[in-house]
Task: inverse folding
């Protein structure tokens, strides 16, 4: 059994990445479960997914006991909390959220075995663990500084039992590195990644270094995963596309990208955008009206009075038309079908309107979204 | 890591059919380790002796998930049919070191089963080995353990009371405090501001024990909220016994005493056992044939103390953690899933 896991916050900027990853997970027919850990307070609604199981964990940024805002705490914190609460006994495929699947990963590992993507920029030097001198202060907090950690980073494969053993130390070391390591430009930005390598070596979990993911600058796709943290460049080295500036779900221009993985990634992204425009993902959800919601019709708008809500929710005419079609039977895709026949509006616009309206109604507590299918 | 099977007090759900005198039958469902089922077996095993307490003579059992209750006298109980089968191991009379079973409590007695948590492989390989080396190298600093308020021998083992000042204690407490929010959640306690983390290193050798006690109640100990015992010793294990018994407690008004029912937790090297400091527990007698100090069962007991008021300026562990205040993100319990 392989569980594919990734950690995010509930921010909107994480949602498109998560949906893209989910789609690639489905397309590759990756066996096992897909789990999205969302580090957020319970006041924030959990994001919706058609196939991924969404699990809330507490936010670990800022660190609960150190005044330090650093999203990197969320990875060890959320994984520790998840493994603590659930009885997981499986191989875990740990991904960053800006990663997608190109082929299924089927290699199951026994406890004591692990595989990590090579990390060429691992900060090596003459300090403890073979790290740079910046890490000298870590000596005081580590018993054996002569260990040689595997120079690896996400994505990686590890057995859940091994991750359970080392996760608390991983979180602890991330905080120690942030507090203690002299870094020229503030605090170490890759603290959680360095901490992982140290914790794994301290808990005697050797990682085989094996390339699992290609990046946009690679020439060909010969690995099961693609990490798009790096920007896609043109043949002249200009940035054609970057995840930091991407507006979901806008179309990209693959033809401007240098031939290779970057261009192929943009072509895949465009294909998914077309599916989004066609309302493909809407067929996975069926909206159910929440009990006790009362409606009042006014000229050109509708008011929804939701139990426990401070004030009524106002729906414009198109949102009201969507709400009217929520009969606890239709999927979102079927609602789009009805509205497409009724109004002269492009399906892509209609689908985005439905998606946006549903997210608001879900957040406001007017509907819950039931999975319409869990077929892989 | 946490053994969830261990943390659930009831274990499997058992379908129980009680046969009473005059041919009456009673069907109900109970947890395998629930105090009610333990009591029923105990009564059945004790029908011809005087060990059934007054509390156990009058039985009240929940029916229909607590929507109804059935009351009867213990002498009416004829037999117990369980599905699946429950095998009961009857015990010998308890040794003088073990807990006196509660006596003469009124029928309104409440039995509480303490929650607890086991985390195996708590420290890294070298940290664990280094902890053992520290204990071995400080044999001369161990002294006989004492118990406040007990004049008769209640405890026999050796301790280093000043262990909290050492780097080894800080290593352990820093790791514990990283776990703290999850420990409190598992023990169903509110997360609290920390006052202090006490730490004591214990060596237990042949014939050593620590009779039933709880860790709260005496001055400084009043602040203790969570007890965390970290076990470490040579392997293969050079001793027998030395299990930790964690007793159910009987609440009777303001008084709280150890019940006769308990769970036993084996001492496993590099294992952390966590339970509320208010829980009654006992270290069972250790048999260590060699008697050598190095063959002792070592344990570091940490008591995480609760602070009555926030301590924003205090730092803990290695000195980075500000656990004297409640972090904002722990104001609500998480754990929901889609």
Result:
């Amino acid at each position: 059994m392989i569980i594919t896991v990734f950690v995010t916050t509930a921010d909107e900027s994480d949602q498109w990445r998560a949906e893209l990853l989910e789609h690639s997970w489905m397309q590759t027919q990756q066996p096992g479960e897909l789990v999205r850990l969302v580090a957020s307070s319970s006041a924030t609604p959990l994001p919706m997914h058609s196939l991924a199981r969404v699990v809330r964990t507490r936010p670990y940024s800022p660190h609960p006991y150190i005044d330090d805002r650093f999203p990197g705490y969320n990875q060890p914190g959320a994984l520790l909390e998840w493994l603590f609460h659930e009885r997981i006994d499986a191989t875990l495929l740990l991904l960053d959220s800006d990663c997608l699947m190109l082929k299924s990963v089927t290699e199951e590992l026994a406890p004591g075995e692990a595989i990590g993507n090579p990390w060429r920029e691992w900060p090596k030097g003459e300090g403890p663990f073979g790290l740079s001198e910046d890490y000298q202060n870590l000596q005081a907090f580590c018993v054996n500084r002569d260990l040689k950690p595997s120079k690896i980073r996400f994505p990686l494969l590890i057995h859940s039992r091994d991750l359970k053993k080392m996760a608390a130390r991983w979180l602890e070391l991330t905080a120690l590195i942030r507090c203690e390591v002299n870094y020229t430009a503030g605090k170490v930005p890759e603290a959680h990644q360095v901490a992982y390598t140290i914790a794994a070596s301290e808990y005697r979990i050797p990682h085989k270094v094996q390339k699992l993911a290609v990046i946009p600058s690679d020439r060909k796709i010969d690995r099961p995963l693609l990490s798009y943290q790096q920007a896609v460049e043109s043949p002249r080295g200009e940035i054609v596309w970057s995840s930091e500036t991407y507006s979901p779900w806008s179309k990209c221009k693959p033809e401007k990208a240098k031939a290779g993985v970057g261009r192929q990634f943009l072509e895949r992204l465009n294909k998914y955008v077309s599916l989004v425009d066609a309302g493909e993902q809407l067929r996975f959800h069926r909206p159910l009206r929440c009990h006790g919601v009362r409606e009042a019709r006014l000229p050109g708008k509708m008011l929804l009075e939701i139990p426990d809500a401070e004030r009524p929710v106002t729906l414009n005419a198109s949102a009201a038309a969507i709400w009217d079609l929520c009969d606890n039977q239709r999927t979102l895709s079927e609602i789009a079908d009805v509205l497409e026949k009724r109004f002269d509006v492009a399906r892509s616009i209609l689908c985005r309107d439905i998606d946006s309206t549903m997210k608001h109604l879900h957040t406001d507590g007017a509907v819950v979204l039931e999975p319409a299918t869990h077929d892989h | 890591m946490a053994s969830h099977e261990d943390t659930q007090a009831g274990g499997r759900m058992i379908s129980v059919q009680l046969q009473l005198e005059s041919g009456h039958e009673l069907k109900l469902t109970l947890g395998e380790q629930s105090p009610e089922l333990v009591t029923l077996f105990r009564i059945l095993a004790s029908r011809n002796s005087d060990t059934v307490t007054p509390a156990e003579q009058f039985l009240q059992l929940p029916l229909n998930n607590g929507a109804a209750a059935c009351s009867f006298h213990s002498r009416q109980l004829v037999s117990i049919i369980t599905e699946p089968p429950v095998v009961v191991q009857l015990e010998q009379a308890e040794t003088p070191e073990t807990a006196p079973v509660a006596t003469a409590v009124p029928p309104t007695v409440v039995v509480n089963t303490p929650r607890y948590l086991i985390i195996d492989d708590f420290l890294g390989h070298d940290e664990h080995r280094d902890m053992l080396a520290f204990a071995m190298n400080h044999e001369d600093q161990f002294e006989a353990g004492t118990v406040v308020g007990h004049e008769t021998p209640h405890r026999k083992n050796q301790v280093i009371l000043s262990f909290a000042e050492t780097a080894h204690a800080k290593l352990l407490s820093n790791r514990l405090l990283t776990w703290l929010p999850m420990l409190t959640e598992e023990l169903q306690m509110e997360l609290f501001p920390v006052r202090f983390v006490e730490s004591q290193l214990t060596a237990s050798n042949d014939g050593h024990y620590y009779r039933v006690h709880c860790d709260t109640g005496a001055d400084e100990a009043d602040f203790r909220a969570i007890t965390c015992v970290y076990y470490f010793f040579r392997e293969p294990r050079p001793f027998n016994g030395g299990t930790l018994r964690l007793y159910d407690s009987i609440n009777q008004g303001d008084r709280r005493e150890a019940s006769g029912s308990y769970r036993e937790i084996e001492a496993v090297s590099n294992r952390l056992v966590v339970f509320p400091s208010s829980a009654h527990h006992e270290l069972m007698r250790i048999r260590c044939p060699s008697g050598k100090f190095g063959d002792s069962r070592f344990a570091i007991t940490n008591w995480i103390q609760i602070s009555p008021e926030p301590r924003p300026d205090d730092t803990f562990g290695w000195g980075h953690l500000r656990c004297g205040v409640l972090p904002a993100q722990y104001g609500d319990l998480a754990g929901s899933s889609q």
User: Anything to note?
Assistant: The mean pLDDT of chain B is 81. Chain B is about 15% helix and 35% strand.
